[in-house]
Write the structure tokens for this entry.
Amino acid sequence: MSPSFGRGAMTNSWSDLKNAEVFLIAGSNCAENHPIAMKWINRAKENGAKIIVVDPRFTRTASKADIFAQIRPGTDIAYLGAIINYIIEQKLYDQKYVLNYTNALLKVSTDYKLEDGLFSGYDAKTRKYGTASWGYQLGPDKKPLKAESIEDPDSVFSKLKAHYSRYTFDTAEKISGIPAAKIKEIADVFCKGKPASILYALGMTQHTTGVQGIRAYAIIQLLLGNIGKAGGGINALRGEPNVQGSTDMANLVSNLPGYLPHPINTDKTLRDYLVRNGSFFEKHIVAQLKAWFGENATKDNDYGFSLLPKTNPAVNATMVKLFEMMNKEQFKLLFNVGSNSLVSIPDRQLVRSALTKLDMLVVSDLFEIETAQFWREPGVNPADIKTEVIMFPAAFVYEKAGSMSNSSRWIQWKDAALEPLGESLPDLDMLDHLFKKIRKLYAGSTDVKDAPILKARWDYGEHTSALKVLQELSGYDETTGKLLPTIGDYLKAPIGTASTGCWIYAGVTGNGNLAARRNNADPSGLGLFKDWSFAWPGNVRILYNRASCDEAGQPVDAKRKLIWWDEAAKVWAGNDGGDLVDKTKGPDTPEGKLSFRMNPEGVGRLFAATYMSGLPAEAPADGLPAIGIRPAGICVDGPLPEFYEPTESPTTNILHPEVSISPCALVVSTQIGKSDKFPHVLTTYGVVEHFCAGGITRNIPWLNEIMPEPFAEISKNLAAKIKVVEGDMVEVSSARGKITVRALVTDRLQSYKVNGKDTETIGMPWSWGFASLSPGPSTNEITIAALDPGAGTPEYKVCLVDIRRAN
Amino acid sequence: MDVSRRGFFKLSGLSIAALAAGLGFDPAVAEAKGYALKLEGTKKIPSICHFCSGGCGMLLYVKEGKLIHLEGDPDHPTNEGTLCPKAASLLSVANSPDRVTKPRRRAPGADKWEDISWEEALDIVAKKTKEVRDASWKVADQIVNAKTGLTESLTVNRVEGIAFLGSAEVDNEESYLIKKFCQLIGTPYNEHQARI
């Protein structure tokens, strides 16, 4: 979403779902995995909203649908491309929105092209793209040239039109298995409802083309004018209680908190970093360096920029690749907090092997999860495993104070309700104690490498205080030592005078702990609840809400008014906080026009062009490289979504057989299966009773009683073919391994045709492992580790398998 | 005798209240009292569910440090008092006999855990962190400059031997301290399940 809109977050909120007129739920079984979503979807349905569900299975969510389509896993871009084509051909797009709030008119470089499934700039040796040709035609002022009309052959809109002209309903049917008439019906119903909401979760992201699938959603929603509006948006249903927060805090190799790019080895100075990333980040990285190094971060020492480690951008250390590095003995020490990779990583043999290469594994968790006891998995001889394991007992969510950020970006505070059980402690305390011990070990060192530890600001009290940490995130005026009241105060403060550990959280505790607010009044009736907790950024509840207004700054939807320009008071007013640069800048000013202010073009991006805003027309006189303002987020595998087959596919890509699978996919698994031996498509999913890798839920007796073991869900046709009835044990095998589970024979999966060939999808939940009160085989024994090249997300949703009776 | 009394009242069609009067107490009151007894003297403390990203509000009923009851927070605008089966089951985590409650160590090659103290566990991990950090410190990357063809030494000040996984399962403050901890000791190799 970030290459399209500028931020990688769900655009709307749970309670906003009630405002929608139509839903496309595709890549999410929210009835089971995000039950709270259904409360609000059902409320919209009671008001007449239509629900469209696209899924490989007839799920519990599908049972509420007005239209259901069964899709072959991994082919979403084919049918979405056909919908984009239809919207353009039938002129169903929102003309004003497209012209004013997207980059439709900007002219694309004449070097850009797509040929036989490859975009311009492909290097077959590295399997990567050079992205120079994906830029705009720039004027002498280094700004993109704007076409007179969308018909201009160089315009983004024309490129989009040409690109998707190949995606007819018939082609989409052959690829996806959804009948052409059904795709047309989906397009008609979805385009008619305004506002229209798209919901997705891991069903959409867990593909080698995951990012591009979401890009296809973004294109549809920008064309239809559904972003920035109540009841619209693209609602990424995040998978874990604090996955929004942990992404904000950048437990990711490529970022620092607040989505700042991580420094790389060519960033010798802060200036180099800004040349690469734009001046937009100067204030934020300096504020973070002030939060981390306090008075040891000064203008004279480049604000301590040299104290940060620099990565090598040639090394991809995203989660699955990190296990690959571990398996090659790079790491001697692994900290593992709140995750169970031995169950959750695809082709999990890699994890089993990699953990044996460590000197020490440090685990912090509630229960003795599989990863903590990998050395005694059945079939493993503990004596052979030399890894020392330390396990810290963690306190549970209600045994500690702190905040979590839900999918709606609400930062919600809770106090500790109970003492931690036994000797368990919050991870906060563990980290605090550990850092202090390490700092003691380095006391007195003058070695350059130890400076970051010794010069750090690290004071969260004798009894580690979560509130003190949240205050560090919220930010201080470093000249007075006082908390900055709001994000506005932070943004106004001169560079170097303010600190914040994560700038998008600025102001959360500035006027008391706003994350702890419990006023559930909703005067607008739109489900905004703006006095309940605090939403980043700046308590905006619906992102990009400037796009809910026309050019004059007035709401286009009279029933769902979010913000508006108050001409008398000369200020943006509204039911929601405005997603604006400056609320005193009117709709006719350059600032007041920006609908997508986090993008360098200030508009939504139909075409994910490479671009840096703010570069000067003339090179700087001092001979140093120029610093622009803000670079665009790009997709490493292309500026427009193109359909590629999954890495293991039962067929060949009919659009370009020579480039069948993603040319950039990162394939980590060494064993790849073919459809002659493994003819069926396996897709994995979750069930309402268990959560992710099951570390908690498999230790809860109630849940185990309802859902005791994993299974393979198969169609009646397939059951008849392999001669099994429900409850029989079946062996499911892939090129990587095999597991034996019970068969669930169901109508929820139907046989279908792909490129004319009969095909079967098998569904399996994946939450089991060898430990806990309710052990069971791990489905990730057989899944494939093939990753999206940009996000690093594995293709859990598609691999090839065979199935047979086991007894 | 009890049985026959009950049978008599039932047959005679007398009201429950009359029955109660006969017994010397009012069952309606007793019933309400029975429910109140469970929650009597408890403190209601709001918290947040720990499963999907809904962020639903829970109300915890706590008495003498023990979690007695858990239900949806009726004031919470997202879930309005409702909870899914997973959230409702979180009562059991607080008192689960299967929780790990003491730090543990598994020695290299051992086939079982031994309990250790927090102090001991932290010392072991701190020392190991220093040892691996010092041994795997990388001052510079040697990179061939694409334009000049010359090898450049680029200062990186990075730890190569330590990785940190975590976490979308912890609070913001913890997640932030994980990142800060990693950056201060010098490892950029911090990832977590948001990626997968």
Q: What stands out?
A: The CA atoms of residues 139 and 157 of chain B lie 5 Å apart. Chain B touches chain A through 110 residues (CB under 8 Å).
